[in-house]
Amino acid sequence: MDNNFKPEEKLQEIIQAYNQVMQETDGSSFYDVKILPYSKDEIFKALLAAIKLSDNPQIKEHLKAGLISLSYFQENIGDFPIKPFGKDPQEWLTMPDKKMKQSLKDTEWQTSFEKYKELHDKSDKEIALYMNIADKLDKPHLPHRKFIDQWKNGEIKIDVDRSKALRIANSNSFPKRYRAAHVFWSTVWLLTIPLGIWLFFYKWWVGLLVLFIASPLIAKATKTSAMQFMINHALESESFYNHATTNGVFRTSKKPSTIPAPLR
Question: Fewer Cβ close by (within 10 Å): the C or N end of the chain?
Fold first, then answer.
């Protein structure tokens, strides 16, 4: 990716056309790049240019959300999107017991699931790249003392980069008390997967509840706690705060009085 942005007069046209396509997606499935109104690279550059030109923190965040969504458009997907678990969750819940067990053993379902996981891993890497580039366009971070004061007074909000936060949470550079808590909840989350599979063959609906509801909720809570640990440690340590802001682990922005509709 280079910095040859589209002229400013074209940015609105590109972003609005991209927004129209986003209205027709579900936010979790992968779609073929051929449905995009412009090339993926053109949309990427337009979003970056808009981030660079905007002085509104909320607009910047919505544009960055557009960058994240862009990673869900990939090559060679075909005419039909690749969905999580190969089907909509509602389809699984209404499926007869016998048919569901057969589906889980089906080679086509396993292939679809593996393809989704492969695309998800690729998407995560793209998001990390996109956010790293976008973060470099933002203004320098607040001095640590001012950061603490504005956070305590509720004047700013902090957006944490999930992938970077998780990498730090799992490293030896993070304080032991935070790392131990993160490892504990990560282990609990991982254990829900084999538990859900085992329960599925005991009582299939209980297994589904564990796999589709309990496990995702624990995973989300684990990631949220890791992000909160980043904020807590940044408030405690000036050196960590400087490292985190410089490397895009989190971004601070002023809380606006009104929030515009998000880019989708």
Answer: N
* φ/ψ of residue 156, rounded to 5: -130, 160
Whether the CB-CB separation of 28 and 69 falls below 8 Å is answered with: no
Question: Which of 8-47 are b and which e, b meaning 16 or more Cβ less than 10 Å from the residue's Cβ?
Answer: eeebeebbeebeebbeebeeebbbbeeebebebebbbbbb
At CA 69, angle to CA 56 and CA 244, rounded to 5?
Answer: 60
Query: What is residue 183's predicted lDDT score, i.e. its pLDDT?
Result: 65
Q: What is the pTM of this model?
A: 0.47
CA distances from 114 to 109, 194, 234 (A): 9, 17, 37
Q: Are 120 and 219 spatial neighbours (Cβ–Cβ below 8 Å)?
A: no
| Residue of 101, 116, 135, 151 lying closest to 244 (CA atoms) | 135
The secondary structure of 198-224, three-state, reads: HHHHHCHHHHHHHHHHHHHHHHHHHHH
pLDDT at 257: 46
Question: What is the rounded distance in angstroms from the CA atom of residue 111 to the CA atom of residue 107?
Answer: 6
CB atoms within 10 A of CB 255: 12
Length of the chain: 264
Contact 18, 39 (CB under 8 A): no
